[in-house]
Amino acid sequence: MNFDYTDEQNMLRDSIAKWAAGQYDFDKRREALKSEDAWKSNWATFAELGLLMAPLPEEYGGLGGGPIDINVVAEEFGKALVVEPYVPTVVIGAGAIKYAGSAAQKEEHLNAIAGGERVIAFAQAEPKSRWTLHDVSTTAKKDGAGYVLNGQKAVVIGAPQADTLLVSARTSGGQRDTSGISLFLVPKSAKGVTTRDYPTMDGTRASEVYFENVSVGAEALIGAADDALPVIERIVDEANTAYCAEAVGCLRMMTDLTREYAKTRKQFGKAIADFQVLQHRMVDMFMASEESYSMALRATIKLGESDLERAKAVSAAKVSIGKHGRFVGQAAVQIHGGMGVTDEMRVGHYFKRVTMIDSTFGNVDHHLRRFTALNAKAAA
Q1: Is 1 a residue whose pLDDT tops 70?
Q2: Do 22 and 132 share a domain, yes or no?
Q3: Which CA distances in Å does 72 have to 134, 190, 246, 312?
Q4: Within a domain: residue 167?
């Protein structure tokens, strides 16, 4: 099997790296984080570079790419510590519409996403649901041809920037039933929707979102009522592979930055890079980064297989990359000394980002349990 990227994918990688070096370096990123509107110009640039349309169907304004293209974008975004809501919009939002949306929904929303005119946030997690995708207490009750939504969603990444919310809500059954869950596209400006916005520790932005008697029409429902869980599981697995690729970019940068720092930091009259114990540690960091890359690529390739094989590969990647992210982050900070956790040093920001990625849609422990359960299911 050929694991080389295509010429188009390499051009995509180069264009992102060039943009990041000129417009999104560390100092410019830190300044941009102080403004709530700085992301808008970057989002317009993403549209100009074709990043928003790369994985979307050609008939709806996209370039017809796939998961590997998203992998390429995500890894470069990880290297640059990009905080714009790319995965919530392009992977999750567009993915749900692509897999389950009507022709009218695809025409309206996918074209808008490709052009940078639509930003979507995934309102799925709830205060007590942890990472259980079918634990949904937010309700959507039938009201004539439409629905009325009530409930609360927690830590909705990208919601402060979004104009549209992709909401999971229970249309029938009990709170933890696997059936009875539906997906809705809800304008954030709809009457009854309120948000409490805040920054997360890695520089991204999130919201607590509240729905109080929010009325939506029948056109807001994506796919069939009561049967959204398979779609949710699929788009979350795809999001996790993108986040794994982003983590790889972070790990590679932490490894490179630590190696360069060790060459310049002197102790006892010599560079600390000359100490054998630190050489061994940095080799371990490099190996962890490369293994993480392999696991992320394997999960990406497995997205096209059966639901069971896809889920096993994604959980395996989350476990491996979560562990490696902790090791590489801790080693990078330790070799940098006390400076490693200061705001002025880049390694601390990368460590924060991989920590957040680990806890997004399930941490190491969660995915280890999931992987074990999936293996038992496959053996049964």
Answers
A1: no
A2: no
A3: 30, 35, 9, 22
A4: yes
Angle, helices 276-302/67-80, rounded to nearest 10 degrees: 150
Q: What angle do CA 294, 50, 307 make, to 5 degrees?
A: 45
Contact 112, 52 (CB under 8 A): no
Cβ-proximal residues to 335 (8 Å cutoff; 6+ apart), any chain: 258, 261, 262, 272, 278, 281, 282
Domain endpoint, select from 84, 118, 152:
118
What pTM, to 2 d.p., does this model score?
A: 0.96
Q: Which domain holds residue 20?
A: 7-118
On whether both 138 and 216 belong to a single domain, the answer is yes
Tell me the CATH number at 247: 1.20.140.10
Q: Is residue 1 part of a domain?
A: no
- How far is Cα 58 from Cα 114, in angstroms, rounded to an integer? 10
Based on the domain organization, do 114 and 133 belong to the same domain? no
Q: Is beta strand 164-170 parallel, antiparallel or unpaired with respect to 120-123?
A: parallel
Could you tell me which of 209, 204, 228, 239 has the C-alpha nearest to residue 314?
239
d(CA 29, CA 83): 9
Q: Which residues contact 306 (CB under 8 A, 6 or more apart)?
A: none
Does residue 80 sit in the same domain as residue 47?
yes
- Condensed to tens digits (0 to 9), the pLDDT of residues 224-273 reads 999 999 999 999 999 999 999 999 999 999 999 999 999 999 888 899 99
Could you report the per-residue pLDDT of 80-122, keeping only the tens digit for each? 999 999 999 999 999 999 999 999 999 999 999 999 999 999 9
Provide the 3-class DSSP secondary structure of residue 308: helix
